[in-house]
Amino acid sequence: MKRLFWEIYSVILLSIFAVLLLSYTAFSYLNQYRYQTHLQEVMSGTAYLLKAGVNRQEGENQQRWLTLSASLLNAGLSIRNLKKPFQNPDEKNAFIYKEELNSELFVLQQKLNKANKILEFKFEGFTEQIATATAFLLLNEIGRYDVSKRQSAFDDISQIFSYPIYRRSRQDLVLDSRQLERLDRGETIIEWDKHYGRGLSINVYAPWGSTSDLLHMGSIDFFEPYPFHIVVSVFIFALILIALSVFVIIKHLTGKLYQLHDKVDAISPNNTLEIEQSADTSALDLLTLKVHNMAERIKSLLDEKAYMIRAVSHDLRTPIAKMQFRLEMLLADLDEKHPALLGCNKDLDQLSTLIDELLTYEKLTLQLRINIYAIDIMELVTEQLQNYKLLYPKLTIAVISKLPKNFILEGNEPLLNRLLDNLVNNGARYADSKLTLTLIIEDKHLKLQIDDDGNGLDNKTISKLFSPFYRAEGSRNSKNGGYGLGLAIVKQVAMQHKASITACNNELGGARFTLLFPLKLTALIESEKSCL
User: Fold this and answer.
1) SS3 call for 9
2) pTM here?
C-alpha cells in the first residue's frame, strides 16, 4: 500500500514538475520573442537615422561616418554585401535577430539604397548611450534642412519612431537647476521614471540648436520581463495543465479501480454483506466491501476444502486398515514373501503416508499460532542426523556448527523436528556421497543450511519447489519418488516460525536449502555472553 502511495505521489510530482518545466520553457521563449519585438520597435528610429546617414555618404566619408556613429552608439557598425535575399519583407524597417543562440549580442540589419548592400549594427540592447546617440543623430538629421523646413522634416521623422518625440520649450518642463546647467552646456540629459504596473522608462532631453527649445524623446519604456498580466497568464496556464494532468492520472486510476471491481465480482459474485449505495458512495468504499465479501467467500471455500480433505483422509483410513488386516489373514495361507502380498503392503504403506502428509499440511495451513518454547537446536539436529547415518551408512553426513555453547532457539520442537526430517531425508535420498548441515548466526538470524552433492536443482523450477503436489521433471525426481508435499510442509513450518527458506545449487553441483530463523535481541546477548 505504501508503494502504491509513493507511485501515485511520484507520478503527480513528476507531472507537476513537467508542467512547471514546460511553463518555464514557454515563458522563456515568450520573453525572448517579446524582447526581440521590443528592440525591433524601440530601435526603429535609430535604424532609420543610421540608414539615412550612410546613404548620404560616399567612400572615405562613409567609413568615417560609420566609425563616428559606432563610437557614439558604443556598438559595431559595418556594411556588408547581400549574399541572399533580405530577410525582412518590409525594407523600410530594420530586421533584428540574435547573433548566436547563447550570445548576448543582437544584430540589426537594414537594406541600403545601393544594390546588394546592407547596414549591420551589432549591440547588446537598448542603453542610455544609444538613447543619447539617437538624440544626437536626430538633431543632426534635422539640421540638414533649412530653418523653414525643419519642423516639417521633424514631423515626418517622428512618425518612424515607436516612442513619442517632441520639440518643447524649457518653460513647459519641470527640470532642476543642475539639469538646466547641463543643457546650457550643450549636454544631453536622461531622466529616469518608474511607473507602477508599467516598469522602468526614461526621458531624453537635448538642446535644440541655438534656440531655447529642447528635443524631448520619451518616455521610452525599457523591457519588462515579468509584467503582471503575463505572469498571471502563465500561472493560470500552469494550474490548468497541472489540473488536467492530475485529472488524467486520477481518471486512469479510476478506470483501473473499476476493472478491479469487475474482477472481484467475477471471483465472488455472491455478496455476503449489503451496503446502501448512493451517489455519495465512493469507489474505494465499494471496493472495500467487495474485497471483504471476496475474503469471506475465499475463507468459506478454504474451510470447505479443509473439511473435505480431513473427511476424505479419515474415511480412507478405515478401508486401508481393513485391507491391511485381511492381508495379515492371507499370510496364513500364502508365503509372506509372495510378490502380490509385498506389492499390496507397499501400496497401502504409500497410501497411508500420503494421507498423513495431507493431514499434516492441511493442519499447518490452518494453524495460526503455535506453542513456542526453548529448544536446544544442536541436540535436535544431532538426533536427526544419527538416525539418518543408520539409514544411509554409505553416506558421509557431517555437521558444521559455529554456534555458541548451549545455544537456545525459540520454536516448536515437533514442527522443527518434522522440518529437519523432511530436509535431511530429501538431501540424503538425492546425495551421491556427502550431506552437510551448517549452523551459524548471521545478521541477527540463525542460518541453517543443508547441502548435498547430488544432481542439483533445475533453475527453472526452483521457485515452484515449495508448492504442494509439485514434482519437477528432472534427474532428482526420476531417481526417487515422492508426493510433492515434503517441501511444502517445510515451507509451512518455516512460515510458522517467521523464518525464510530458499533453494539453490551449491558449488558441489548439488542442492542447497537455506533457512533463516529470526533471533530476539535477548537471545543474541545471551549467546554473546556464553562465548566469553
Assistant:
1) helix
2) 0.48
